[in-house]
UniProtKB/TrEMBL annotation:
Family note: Belongs to the leucine-binding protein family.
InterPro entries (UniProt xref): Leu-bd, Peripla_BP_I
One Pfam family recorded for the sequence: Peripla_BP_6
The entry's keywords: Signal
Domain Leucine-binding protein: 34-387
Protein origin, superkingdom: Bacteria
UniProt xrefs under SUPFAM superfamilies: Periplasmic binding protein-like I
Protein name as annotated: Amino acid/amide ABC transporter substrate-binding protein, HAAT family
Length: 401
C-alpha cells in the first residue's frame, strides 16, 4: 500500500510539473536567468553610419543588465552585421533563430531587409518588433501580423507633411524626388501621391539610386532640369550628403526637404558642407542633444550620462544613439510587461498594448501607443530647419496619418 501511494505521489508531482515544463518549452530563447533577442545591423557596407543604432542598443542592455536585468533575467542582445545586404540579413537572421534560438527579432535595420525576413519569421512564430524602418507597409497587419514599426515617424506620414507644407507656400509647386530604389524610397513617393492625388504625375519628377551606386550627381542634374521648385531627398546618409552638395554646386535653390533618417550633422550636414545645407527642412520626433533648448533637460542629462559610461567612444552628436536609446527603452517596456510569461503570444500581446508611454528622449507631447489594430508606435512629428549649425524646430506637433 505504501508503494502504491508513493507511485501516486510521484505521478501527481509529475502532472503538476508538466504545465510549467510545457510553458517553458514555448518560451524559446528564455531561461531562468536570460532572455535572448537578436538583430541585424549594417556595421559595414554603404550605410554603416546606421551601425550606431546597434551599438547604442547593445550599450543600453548592458546598462540594464548591470542593474539586474528585467524581472530577474539578463538581456542577451545578439547583434550581427549584415552589411545592409538583404541576402545576408536572411542568412544572419536564420542563424539567430535556428542556432542562437532567440525569443524575438528587435530593431533590425532596413526596409528591404525586414521585408526579406518577415515571412520566414512568421513561419517560425518569431516576433519582429520595433523594426529599424519607418516604412508604412509594416503597419499592414494582414501582411505583417507579428511586426511593429520602429520608434520613429513613418516615412509615408513624413512625405505627406512635406507635400502639405510646400503646397501651403505655393499651391502650384512642382516636386522633384531623389529616392532609394526600394520600399524605403517608394514610401516617400506614395506619401506625396496621397496629398497630390490626380496632380501627382504632372507635378512630380522622380529619380532613384541603388545603394551600390558611387554617386547620384547625374540624377540631381536631371531633376534640376525638370524645373521643379521643391526637392525631396529620400535617402540614407551617404546619398543625402551627396545630394545636398550637388544641389549647392550647380546653383539650384529649391525648397528642400530631407528625410529625417539623414539629418545627422556629423555624418550628413558636415560632409555636405554646412553652408550647402542651410535652410533645408525636415522633421523631428526626438530631442537633439545639440539643441541648446535641452541643455537643462533631465532626459537629455540622463542620456548623456548613459553615453559617457556605456558608449564612451561614440559620437555624442550622432542622434542615431538617441534613436537607439528610445528603441531599447520601448523594448524594455514590453519585456517588463510580459512578467514571467515570455511566450510569443504574450510578447505580441504586450507589444500591441502600449498606452501613452512617454520616453525621456522623445519630443514633449509624443507618446507611444499601440493596439491590436495599430502597429505604429509614433505618428507625430515637428518641423525643423537647418540654420547652418544646428536644427531649429518650429510649429506644433503634426501627424501625417
Amino acid at each position: 500500500m505504501r508503494f502504491v501511494t508513493g507511485i501516486g505521489v510521484v505521478g501527481a508531482l509529475a502532472l503538476l510539473a508538466w504545465p510549467a515544463a510545457a510553458i517553458s518549452a514555448e518560451m524559446r530563447g528564455v531561461t531562468a536567468t536570460e532572455i535572448r533577442i537578436g538583430q541585424t545591423m549594417p556595421y559595414s557596407g554603404p550605410v554603416s553610419a546606421f551601425g550606431a543604432l546597434g551599438k547604442g542598443e547593445v550599450a543600453y542592455f548592458k546598462m540594464l543588465n548591470e542593474r539586474g536585468g528585467i524581472n530577474g533575467r539578463k538581456i542577451n542582445l545578439i547583434s550581427l552585421d549584415d552589411s545592409y545586404a538583404p541576402p545576408k540579413t536572411v542568412e544572419q537572421t536564420r542563424r539567430l533563430v535556428e542556432s542562437d534560438e532567440v525569443a524575438l527579432i528587435f530593431s533590425s535595420i532596413g526596409t528591404a531587409h525586414n521585408t526579406a525576413i518577415a515571412k520566414y519569421l512568421q513561419g517560425k512564430n518569431i516576433p519582429q518588433l520595433f523594426v529599424g524602418s519607418g516604412a508604412s507597409k509594416f503597419a499592414d497587419i494582414a501582411q505583417y501580423p507579428q511586426a511593429t514599426l520602429g520608434v520613429q515617424g513613418p516615412f509615408r506620414y513624413e512625405a505627406r507633411l512635406y507635400a502639405r507644407y510646400a503646397l501651403a507656400k505655393n499651391p502650384n509647386a512642382r516636386f522633384a524626388v531623389i529616392s532609394q530604389n526600394d520600399d524605403f524610397g517608394r514610401d516617400y513617393l506614395q506619401g506625396l501621391k496621397d496629398v497630390l492625388g490626380d496632380k501627382y504625375d504632372s507635378v512630380v519628377s522622380a529619380a532613384t539610386y541603388e545603394v551600390q551606386d558611387p554617386t547620384i550627381d547625374s540624377q540631381i542634374v536631371k531633376l534640376k532640369a525638370s524645373g521643379a521648385d521643391v526637392l525631396v531627398i529620400a535617402a540614407t546618409p551617404k546619398f543625402a550628403a551627396q545630394s545636398i552638395r550637388k544641389v549647392y554646386e550647380i546653383g539650384w535653390k529649391p525648397m528642400t526637404f530631407l528625410s529625417n533618417v539623414a539629418v545627422w550633422i556629423s555624418t550628413v550636414m558636415q560632409p555636405a558642407g554646412l553652408e550647402a545645407g542651410t535652410g533645408i527642412l525636415s522633421t523631428a520626433y526626438v530631442k537633439d542633444p545639440d539643441d541648446p533648448a535641452w541643455n537643462d533637460d533631465a532626459g537629455v542629462k540622463t542620456w548623456r550620462g548613459f553615453m559617457v559610461k556605456y558608449a564612451p567612444d561614440a559620437d555624442l552628436h550622432d542622434t542615431n544613439y538617441v534613436n537607439a536609446y528610445n528603441s531599447a527603452m520601448a523594448m524594455e517596456h514590453v519585456l517588463k510587461a510580459c512578467g514571467d510569461d515570455l511566450s510569443t503570444e504574450n510578447i505580441l500581446k504586450q507589444a500591441y498594448s502600449i498606452r501613452d508611454l512617454e520616453l525621456p528622449m522623445l519630443l514633449p507631447g509624443i507618446r507611444i501607443n499601440t493596439s491590436a489594430s495599430d502597429h505604429v508606435p509614433v505618428d507625430q512629428m515637428q518641423f525643423m530647419r537647418f540654420n547652418g549649425k544646428t536644427w531649429d524646430r518650429f510649429g506644433e506637433l503634426q501627424t501625417g496619418n
